[in-house]
Amino acid sequence: MFLRLMSVFFVAALQGLLLAQPVITIKDGDINPGQSVTWTSDNAYLLDGLVFVEDGATLTIQAGTVIKGKEAPTTGDNTSALIIARGGKIYALGTATQPVVFTAESDDVSDPNDLTLNDRGLWGGLLLLGYAEINTTTGVGQIEGIPSTEPRGAYGGGHASPNDDDNSGVLRYVSIRHGGSEIGAGNEINGLTMGGVGRGTTIEYVEVYSNLDDGFEWFGGTVNCKYLVSAFVGDDDFDYDEGYRGKGQFWFAIKDVLVGGGRVAEQDGGTEPEDGQPYAIPLISNVTYLGAGTGNTPQGDGAELMIFRDNAGGKYYNSIFTDYNGANGGKGITVEDLASGEDSRARLEAGELVLNNNIWWNFAAGNGLSQFAPQQFVADHLAANNNQIADPQINSVSRAQNGQLDPRPSASGPAASGAVPVSDPFFAPVSYYGAFDPNAAVLWINRWTALNGERVTGIKDRQLDGNGQAPNAFALSQNYPNPFNPSTNIRYSLPRATNVKITVYNIRGQLVATLVDGYRAAGEYLVTWNAASLASGVYFYRLEAPGMVETRKMMLLR
Fold first, then answer.
1. Model's pTM, two decimal places?
2. β-bridge partners, 502
3. Taking Cα atoms as reference points, which of 342, 353, 344, 341 lies closest to residue 382?
């Protein structure tokens, strides 16, 4: 009788517990030289002001960790952002199922309905600064988005001793959401800003979602980047400047139907001076750039999907450019053509601006070569370099939270084959155009991105119930077999992607096992527990997820 009463009491106590994740506030905090700090997934972190990882310091962020930026006020010196200064390092080590998420203070990352894709500028963003070369007069710049008087905002190594192999750390499976607050007119923070970042840095599987300003911006440097997502940003998606010379593959951009202003690709060469060296000549392959749709009239200043200016070069291969209607036009491409001096046309004629073996389609200006590329020398270049005007037959384009976005091209369409691999070890040798394999069973943007978590893309690679649908409620099933010896199976269901924890306790309330602890996609799951090392008796297993705790009893019999 006593054991029965204790069991009932303990189950009731467990069911009544709602364990809130501790929030650690970093207020105008700095990670100082010589420090090595780790942010862990069992805490949430709130940036309250500008937080610097200084020269000689290291910040490690575990998979599944959520970092939020304080929202009020979000202008001037009070903007919240994380800045990796020159000589500092960040290791944000997410996974496909447990990304590192940077987002706004009010964002419940487990609820796809609390913020929308139109919630922008709620906090700052993430800035990486390094010692690689930039092409300004002095070779050193002051990064935009933070006060110009802040000495830790410097980037670039100067022309005398730059380090193009500089290492600022690792960003892997990182999602940056709802940022872009401004410190003054025309001085906003990008989702991910890279100033003088060197090729020793690893950047792959990084998303910028609903940022007020640009998605990604490179100020010089040589960092290579794979698997980038820029979704529903307020200005440009991929913007480089000041002599950026890195490599990129598998980049995806999609613009919002109304605030799709700016360009998808704003490719700039120099600032002071515009013809400074080294020239901006990145090498990029397999991108899919989607505008806001030709049936929509977005706000903003983008007249074309892509522009090369300020003496910028750059080389694009095996890519898909489509679906663009800028507020001031709807062209595919413009290349700067000045009356005298160095310009982007000169880079094209020197072979330093190349658009080769790409697919162009669906521009408001028209699909004729002279319509979406009205400059004759540009049209001639496209015609001479194996560019196609053809429908890439993308499976499904949606810019709403309805699960209908599937940016893979048809496996039987023109984008499914014919790509020519780039002869460089950085690039994966694929035969398809664009950022997505037409035959892939799993979209690489699923699970870890806000695009998937906030239901813009579908659930094609998630674990589903028997009807092929995600469950509509949290559920913890009775284990089976029960009683058991020594193993049993526990099934649970998640209606949305979230952090989840399943633990096992003995009759005294002591923790004896942790079966699940981390981010999981929506779906049904099965976990097996082996209790071979434990004594017979009553045990309790508990499911914890945001907003709910559920506990059940099971019996181990020898």
1. 0.80
2. 516, 543
3. 353
